[in-house]
Amino acid sequence: MTGPSDPESAAPNPGGTGSTPGQDTEPTRPDAAGCGGARSTQGQSPQSTEPTPSDAAGSSGAGSVSGRSPQGAERTAAALSDREHRSAPEETPRRAPGPAGTAPAAAEAPAAGGAPGAEPGRAPGTGTRKRAIRRTAAVLAVLAAGAVILAALNSGTRHGHLDPRSADPTGSRAVAELLKERGVTTRVVTTAREAADATGPRTTLLVTDPDRLGAGQRSAIRSAIDLSGGRTVLLAPGDHSLSDLSPGVRTEGDAGSDDLDPRCALPAATSAGRAGTGGDLRYTTALPGATACYPSGGHPTLLVLPTGTTGGDTVLLGSETILLNESLAEQGNASLALQLLGSRPDLVWYMPSLADSDPGTGPGGQDKSLLELVPAGWSWALLQLFLAATLAALWRARRLGPLVTEKLPVAIRASETTEGRARLYRKAGARDRAATVLRAATRERLAALVGVPPTQAHEPAALVPAVSARLTGEPRDVTALLFGTTPSDDAALVALADHLDALEREVRTS
Fold first, then answer.
1. How many separate domains does the chain show?
2. Which of 51, 93, 379, 413 is the most exposed, fewest CB within 10 Å of its CB?
3. Which domain holds residue 72?
4. How confident is the model over 403-419, as pLDDT tens digits?
5. Statement to judge: residues 323 and 248 lie in one domain
6. What are the DSSP calls for 462-475, one per residue?
7. 277, 244 in Cβ contact below 8 A?
8. What's the pLDDT tens digit per position in 22-66?
9. Do residues 221 and 322 share a domain?
10. Looking at the structure, do residues 212 and 343 belong to the same domain, yes or no?
11. DSSP conformational letter for 16
12. Smallest Cα–Cα separation from 353: which of 194, 206, 212?
């Protein structure tokens, strides 16, 4: 509400505005006031104008005048307060279009709902989530690194097995170095064709895993044995490979002892003495000229067979122990290994690859379970990961402390709870349950009033006489009221509730 305007304010303005001379009037906002046009003072650009409280209060475009009433001042203050409490998008004023050639100034508004000091364009809690993700990634990286280290340290005892270049406990680098010092050249091959081409009278061929060879590879090695004139050492061959590589020889089970005495006339065995040739396969043969050494249970673990070519022989060694780094220095293992492999200046160390194996026959073709395919070291790694995951779960899980009482967000009156349960009983037609609850509660209260112990409150012999003694009015069937049958309908249930209430009231007032 505004007061009467003075004559000067009523005079027309040459500039076409509705403001008084000598007074700066802010433009009204068309969106807030609902008016169609905007006014500005003479000589003032739209960029320097600000919205007035009268615009926010919903003025219809009238110019600012002097002499406002108290009611108008109150409305102005209310509009100012309302504008201060608005959200950021509502607080951004819209600029009225200015004269030609001028552009309204763009106002930057802060993000709605943004917390003080928060970065623009970032949702609340983004930093916390990123930190949690980084912590989780760091923990997983540590666990993965630990698993890799454990798997590398416990990668199994057959890493580099019988490899003359491996210094692992199950490698054979030690015996290869000793042979090198004695002038024996060691060459490693991985295919049967290379092994057969490298054999000759001055060559010793060592086959580390004869049972892995396929039929074609066994045939090539057999031809090399017959034609080379050198020595061939077969390491722990089984019946699967003996039928092709050394006909007339078969296995006789495992040897019972690891270290055995030579008990033969073979110079290499007698000079080496006791050696670790047991613990694996034993052999038996009826071929003439065979030399049997290191017997266990009557069957040799080292068998030397002459070949058709003069000067050549085949050595069947039932155990690989004498060639391993970890056992080379025990007993006469080193001496026996050097004499068996160093009798010729060249040694061809044949380690059959997967390409030389026959997938359809032999131990390499047998189906293996999933656990057999997993390296031994990974079982410890998986155990460590499981323990780490368990500890992480215990660390991050919610702690279950003692129960605490919490203040309910809404206080529910007891009468409303009673009415709610009553409606449930009525909906279910549970008159028996409702009557039982009413009578049980009445018996407990009456027992406290008449001095009956709580343990006997539901016994008719103890409660009924005590209650009857307190009644002064007309006689009532207390037993039927407190221990009677189920009401037949809802009306009888209501009557029972009224009778129980009257009985309790009478006992209280007696």
1. 3
2. 413
3. 7-91
4. 778 887 888 888 998 88
5. yes
6. HHHHHHHHT--SS-
7. no
8. 334 343 343 433 333 333 334 344 343 444 433 433 333 333 334
9. yes
10. yes
11. S
12. 212
